[in-house]
């Protein structure tokens, strides 16, 4: 009878289309992953995967086995989660994905407080500027900035996301006068956040209606932390979420501009998969950080 470990490896290899990536996510070597799939094929007496130098292809038998194996893995995860739910203390590893700037600035404090309270839980935080799905199935929770598109994930809001205009005192001292309305922005140097379309479309609220400004810029940076640093260095105006600019404003390195026109862009949310039995470690961490952000971070 094929072992459950081999089945888990096979399902992960097929899901990510790579022995190397599957082995890394499972915490084993590539050679061991290959051996387990080969042993599974020998046990079943059929070839499950056709291997080539560039891509893996499922055989017909492999497709059938994968469909059943995926359901078996999901049942095992539900069983494990249900067992964990009756234990007195959460335990195990928790994997959390977060956008780089938000995670860098705000995730360490509540996570370390959580780990001090629950010493049997270990946490791995992955900082990545991946906006929405696809989210690695090995991730328990993902923190992303809304508004959300259609998604198979369940979401819980952490805090509102408001975008505003900021500049360094040094830059403002070099220009004749700061902008007094959104239409003035085109006359100033600007810094774009190049990760997605909010970089080029700066939305404000004008007379109760959304108003978009599309300034041109010679400087584009694909990370919010980089945009903040360039703005602090005095290059020009930056359109930033208040959570990214908060510390620099408090220290006087950035000045908020056009505040009556600022616009809300949804919420920072926690995404997780809808499962009948959410593991204790996941549920308790989710509740913990939600309460922490409600108490400590009103943006």
UniProtKB/TrEMBL annotation:
Keywords annotated in UniProt: DNA-binding, Transcription, Transcription regulation
Entry's family note: Belongs to the LysR transcriptional regulatory family.
Domain HTH lysR-type: 1-59
GO BP: DNA-templated transcription
PROSITE patterns per UniProt: HTH_LYSR
Native organism taxonomy: Bacteria, Pseudomonadati, Pseudomonadota, Gammaproteobacteria, Oceanospirillales
Keyword DNA-binding: yes
Pfam family, any one: HTH_1
GO molecular function: DNA-binding transcription factor activity; sequence-specific DNA binding
Record SUPFAM superfamilies: Periplasmic binding protein-like II, Winged helix' DNA-binding domain
Protein name (database record): LysR family transcriptional regulator
Domain of life of the source: Bacteria
Presence of keyword Translocase: no
């Amino acid at each position: 009878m094929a072992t459950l470990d081999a089945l888990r490896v096979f399902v992960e290899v097929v899901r990510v289309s790579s022995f190397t990536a599957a082995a890394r996510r499972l915490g084993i070597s590539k050679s061991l992953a290959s051996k387990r799939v080969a042993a599974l094929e020998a046990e079943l007496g059929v070839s499950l995967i056709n291997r080539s130098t560039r891509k893996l292809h499922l055989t017909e038998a492999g497709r059938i086995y994968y469909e059943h194996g995926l359901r078996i893995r999901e049942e095992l995860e539900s069983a494990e989660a249900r067992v964990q739910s009756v234990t007195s203390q959460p335990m195990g590893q928790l994997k959390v994905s977060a956008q780089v700037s938000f995670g860098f600035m705000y995730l360490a404090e509540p996570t370390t407080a959580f780990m001090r309270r629950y010493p049997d839980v270990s946490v791995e935080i992955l900082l990545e500027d991946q906006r929405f799905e696809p989210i690695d199935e090995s991730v328990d929770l993902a923190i992303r900035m809304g508004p959300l598109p259609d998604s198979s994930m369940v979401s819980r809001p952490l805090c509102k996301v408001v975008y505003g205009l900021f500049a360094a005192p040094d830059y403002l001292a070099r220009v004749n006068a700061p902008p007094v309305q959104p239409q003035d922005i085109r006359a100033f140097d600007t810094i774009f956040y190049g990760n997605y379309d909010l970089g080029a479309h700066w939305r404000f609220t004008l007379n109760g209606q959304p108003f978009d400004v599309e300034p041109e810029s010679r400087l584009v940076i694909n990370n919010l932390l980089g945009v903040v640093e360039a703005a602090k260095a005095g290059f020009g105006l930056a359109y930033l979420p208040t959570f990214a600019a908060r510390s620099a404003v408090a220290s006087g390195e950035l000045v908020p501009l056009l505040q009556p026109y600022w616009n809300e862009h949804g919420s920072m949310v926690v995404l997780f998969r809808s499962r009948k039995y959410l593991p204790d470690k996941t549920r308790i961490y989710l509740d913990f950080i939600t309460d922490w952000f409600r108490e400590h971070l009103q943006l």
